[in-house]
Write a structure and sequence with these properties.
Number of strands: 9
Order of helices and strands: HHHEEHHHHEEHHEEEHEE
Helix content: 25-40%
Largest sheet: 7 strands, mixed
Strand order of the largest sheet: 3-2-1-4-5-9-8
Structural class: alpha/beta
Amino acid sequence: MDSSSHKFYHEHGFDSREHLETYFSSQQEIGFGDDSMKFPMECLHRAFSEGHIKGDLLIDISPGSFIHHLYTASGFFKQILVLKCTEQCIMELNKWINTHTGAFDWSHIMEYMKCLEGNSDQCQDKHMTLKTAITKIMKCDTDKENLTDPDVLPPADCVISTGMLDFISRDQDDYIMNFRKFVKLLKPDGYLILMGGLNTTYAMIGQDKIHMFKYDENFVRKVLADEGFIIDHCAVQKRTTVSDLSDYKAAIFITAHRE
């Protein structure tokens, strides 16, 4: 399948439950856990533990319905606002928040949390802490200059984006344009956390081959610098998963603030 046949997440959507089962499942044979869950959670734990990234409001702009990256964050922000491109992703996430039958089971994340925080009793409360912290889930339109038009959001202390720029950007110019929309949601002294896959062109979700914008570490570093951001921390983990479901070469994690 050539790139012209790829589907675009923000235009065509994808099966959000299939996405969860494929890339965030507890099933050992799937094997994406180290790259998609363990690595970002370790990086986030370290970033938040330093004490600089905290405040009243965190805005998350990520594809699909995954929430593992928000567990640690829920202890450092009074409110978490989640933006989603599709109604299906919102419905899937609401199932989990409201503990409905058939909601995706995130209990395996507690094993990661125990390794990071070392207190099993506190870890058991993390599900409720996160559910309480997520005060609103909103539909967004990444084609609009104001992502939540006509609603205007209060500026955030931190914006997290896990792979959204990878999914919705067609080329370098598109990535930069989308990046500028995302950072408009930040306070002048706010922090940006970016996560994604390096040198990726696609991700399989069910039978659909979903487009991913291919970029390397140097490109994203240059975008941040050109847009007035200072990188506080950058970590890259080479791919550990053996699978043809996606062709990413490494996972990247960046925290940055405006100069």
